[in-house]
Amino acid sequence: MKKIFKEVYLLLYYTLVAMVNFLPDSQFGNKIRGSVYKLFIRKAGQNLQISKSVNILNPRNIEIGDNVYIGFGSWINAMGNIKIDDEVIVGPYVCISSGNHTKINGSFRFGEHSKSPVKIGKGCWLAAHVVLLAGSNIPEGSCVAAGGVGRIEEEESSIFGGVPAKKILK
Fold first, then answer.
1. What's phi and psi for 108, nearest 5 deg?
2. Burial class (CB in 10 A: 0-12, 13-18, 19+), 42
3. What CATH superfamily is the domain 2-169?
4. Which of 69, 109, 72 is nearest to 92 (CA)?
5. Alpha carbons 87 and 91: distance in angstroms, whole number
6. Cα–Cα distance, 80 to 84 (Å, whole number)
7. Which runs of consecutive H residues, i.e. helices, occur in the chain?
8. 85 Cβ partners below 8 Å, 6+ apart?
9. Is the pLDDT higher at 154 or at 122?
10. Are residues 146 and 127 in contact, defined by beta-carbon separation less than 8 angstroms?
């Protein structure tokens, strides 16, 4: 019975997401998409705006604050927990994952998934094409420059960039 409920839940989720994806990429469309995603996200604040072609996996493991924008084509996999604080901008084509692959018998194909939470502090900006890996902790007011890739674990507000992402400006 639990498996049937999960399948019906996923069918409803992906059907509604597909329907609102036809709305224009405008403030109106983004707010409507945000309202639909809020039905499935564990906790979401006011004024959640989600652009077109965003893919959120495991929305029940995500907490999102007020006034958050998630840009076009972003991919968020909340295998573990993801917390996005207030006033965060997630640029286009950003990937955020709280899970990772492990190796078994020399292959990643059948290894277990490891999980580690991701936290993005208040007022952060993840620019275009950023990839945040499991265990990242982005301090309040920080920016991850376009194309930055890595696991960022810092305590003070900074600008991060590069591959792997590191502090480039305080």
1. -85, -15
2. middle
3. Hexapeptide repeat proteins (2.160.10.10)
4. 72
5. 13
6. 13
7. 2-20, 27-38
8. 65, 119, 120, 121, 122, 123, 124, 140
9. 122
10. yes
Domain extent listing, the chain: 2-169
Q: 52: burial class by Cβ within 10 Å (0-12, 13-18, 19+)?
A: middle
Angle at alpha carbon of residue 34, lines to 28 and 159, rounded to 5°? 100
Residue 107, token pair as written in the block = 């292959």
Closest CA to 84 of 58, 122, 56: 122
Q: From residue 139, how far is each of 99, 121, 135, 165 by CA, in Å?
A: 20, 5, 13, 14
DSSP collapsed to 3 states, 18-46 = HHHCCCCCCHHHHHHHHHHHHCCCCEECC
Q: CA torsion sign, 84 to 167 to 157 to 90?
A: negative
For residue 132 the two structure tokens come to 């945040």
Q: What is the pLDDT of residues 49-97, one digit of tens each?
A: 999 999 999 999 999 999 999 999 999 999 999 999 999 999 999 999 9
Residue 112: strand, helix, or coil: coil
